[in-house]
Amino acid sequence: xxxxxxxxxxxxxxxxxxxxxxxxxxxxxxxxxxxxxxxxxxxxxxxxxxxxxxxxxxxxxxxxxxxxxxxxxxxxxxxxxxxxxxxxxxxxxxxxxxxxxxxxxxxxxxxxxxxxxxxxxxxxxxxxxxxxxxxxxxxxxxxxxxxxxxxxxxxxxxxxxxxxxxxxxxxxxx
Length: 174
What we know:
Elements: H1 6-9, E1 10-11, E2 21-27, E3 35-42, E4 52-60, H2 65-79, E5 85-87, H3 92-100, E6 105-107, H4 112-124, E7 128-131, H5 136-144, H6 159-173
Parallel strand pairs: 1-7, 2-5, 4-7, 5-6
Antiparallel strand pairs: 2-3, 3-4
């Protein structure tokens, strides 16, 4: 994400009123990759004059989905309720299990290049914001996100990037 500029896109935590919309993105992790989640808030995700704020993140491996669900519930004490989560559609089993635990999880659009383009578009429009002190792992991933010589995304330290892409690209086009 060459368009990420921490000087303008890393901001103090804004007052996030309860009426603001909230969405979440989930990357279930696989083969040595951790589970990752991001929570986004905006007065209106579909209004081009409004910013979208990443207000929380979670990334950890080696946990049961029931434990992750409890962690996300605890996180909502600070973020406010997250009424919808978007997840990698190839994680059908994890989506079903999280639904059985009471989460509203929908399969995301998983067109990688299109999703990356959407997130980069938010950056170019000046709408993308990360809350300082709450998104350090996201900033770490933004700094190392890269493509190989074949122009494929390198699947290392990209879990929060995937979760964010699922949430932002899927929710904002529906």
